[in-house]
Structures are given as C-alpha cells and as structure tokens.
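Example 3.2
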Amino acid sequence: MGRCAGQRARGAWQDRRTADACRALEEAGHGPEVARHTGLVLDPYFSASKIAWLLDHVPGARARAERGELAFGTIDCWLIWQLTGGAVHATDATNAARTSLYDIRRGTWCAELCEMFRVPPALLPEVRDCAADYGTTTLLGTPVPIRGVAGDQQAAAMGQGCFAPGMVKATFGTGAFALMNTGAQMVESRNRLLATIAWRLGGETAYALEGSIFVAGAAVQWLRDGLGVIGSAGETGALAASADPGQEVILVPAFTGLGAPHWAAQARGALFGLTRATGPAELARAALESVGLQTADLLTAMQADWPATAGMVLRVDGGLAASDWAMQFLADILGAPVERPAVLETTALGAAWLAGLQAGLCPGPEEMRARWQAERRFVPVMAAAERTRRRSAWQRAVVATLAV
C-alpha cells in the first residue's frame, strides 16, 4: 500500500503464481534456512514470495519500495492502517510469523530472509503483542481503541481455550487448519508441519505446530458452484448419508495443490473409484470424507512430532464443523473424540478476548479455558480395522495423485 495516497496491490493465500520461484529457492538449498528462522516451508502460501512478485510486476513498485514510499501488511495490518487513517503501521507476532520473513525464535524481522526474497525491510510493519495498543479509530463516530490482533487460526485456538500444551483445535472453512499448543517450546517438525507462534502476551511467546489443508469447505463449494450437484452447502451431509455404501469413491481435492504434510504446489485433484452408478450422493460423501482424511494425516504427523498428544481430543470450529455427518466421520477416521463448542465463531471470540484482556475487561488464559463449553461431543464408532483400511486406501490415492 502507498504510504501517502493509500493505493494498494494485494494477493490471496491460495494464489500459486510464485510456485516456480519457491521451487527454485528450494532447489538452491534455502529450505532449511527458511525453516530454521520461521518454522515454515518454502511455499507460495506465505507472503514473502508474493511481495517479491508484486514488486517485480507492478510498474515502479520496487523503486518506490526502496525509497520507503510503500508499506506491506497482512490483512490485519491493512485494516489497522485504514482504521487509524495511516497513523499505525503495525501487526502482531502471529501474523508476522506467516510471512516467511519473521524470525520466530528471536522475535524480529530476519535480514537474511529479506535479502533472500528481495524484500526491502522498510516495507515491513512494527510487530507488537497480540494484546497491545494498536491506536484508535474514529470511523465509527466515536473514538474506539484497537487492543487485540491475532491471526485467524491463533485467535480460534484462544477462542477454543487451547491454552495448555498438547491441546489441539481444527478450523474448517474454505481450507482447514489444525493447531496444537506446544507451550514455550518451538518444536521443529520432522514431518513437514509448521512451527509457528500461537500468541505473544506480555512479551512471552507461546508456540504451536500447525498443519494447513488448502481445500476443505472449498470441496463443497466445488460441488455446488462447479458441478451444480447441490443447491446449498447444507444439503451435503444428508446427501452423503444417502450414498451407496458399496461404492468407495475417493476425492483427493488438490485443486490448488496439497498442503501439509505433502506441500505439493503442483499437484492437482483426482477422483478414484468411479463407476457408472456414481452420482451426486457419492461425490458429496467423497468431498466430506476428504476433509476428515486430510485432517487425519495432519494429526498423525503432529503425534509423531509431539508424542504427548496421546489421548488427544480435537476441538473443532468453522462453517463445516456445523455438519454432524462430517464431524462424526472425522471422529471415526481419527479414532478420537471431536468436540464442537457452544460458540462456533471461535476466531471472533479469541480476537474479542484479546481486546478485552488488554482493556482489563476479560479474565486471563486459565479462566478463559475453564469457561469453555462443548455443544456436542462426537465419539468414534468405526472399527479399528475399517479405519486402517480406509486410511490405507486414501494414502494410495494420494500417492497416485502426486505421481501424475
């Protein structure tokens, strides 16, 4: 965004135009350096390669950036800039951690990574705690202080009361994101998960392991908007329940690549097990099952990185979490209980809690955790042998998809 006139250029998290640039950096051996500083993998999902692309493709942008005339920010930073009339150019530690430019160990922007990605440091915002003073807006007709900022998944984890190490939540929206609290320890994943910042409060950082699924609810949108086999997302569960149990259709929804733990930006989606009898019900079931199967891959990787997750309970939120059918299948394929909260909009709850905490209106983390309530608990009923068989079939489908 322009510091004076407020012009902006933007990119979406599913934009894959920098896949070749990321692959070139990986092939040049930079992957371990990125992971050491940021906890992330080299992938177009994160901001750094997108910033470089914009600077190279928007006429005059790189020269203006070098002169300090441009500013970069994730969506929270842009909103703060707009709300404060350009008075505050700041972000919080959790959003900074998603850029591939922030050293999550030292809590500073990384000069080495800025040089690697060719991003001028002058573009970058100040990084503050999640509960902090982010200025005041008058756009609502009266002065309103901005006191809480966090990334989507981190705010959801706080809204879910996941304040103890080992607690896990998963948010199911367009994509799906599982986050496990690892406390004061930054865990270096051996299974291609992300190490990230869960929150920073009072200058103290808590870390998390995260797995990102690119397509979750987007698979249901594909059924509705792409294929036209459903009229609304709410129809999917009932349609899936009516599917022929004798047909085992598997959807690998790599519409924009595969996320964790595969990180295959070039992969594309595939359907397996189609017959002449396959219809909308079987496709709906395959779409919902693909979300559970991808989540199971993430949690298996988390358990390998953090063995303390034995006896895990998964807390869920997001639009797809409202589907009883999808959440029961999730519990079945995980072989673990799934809890849906009384307040499903946990991201908003977590962000509101941060603002209230900074303003002295909300309790601390421990009391917030004690106040959490479940609306429903889903327990696994699938036999262990069937679970193993289903997951093995899924793994073969993923391997075949990656081989194309």
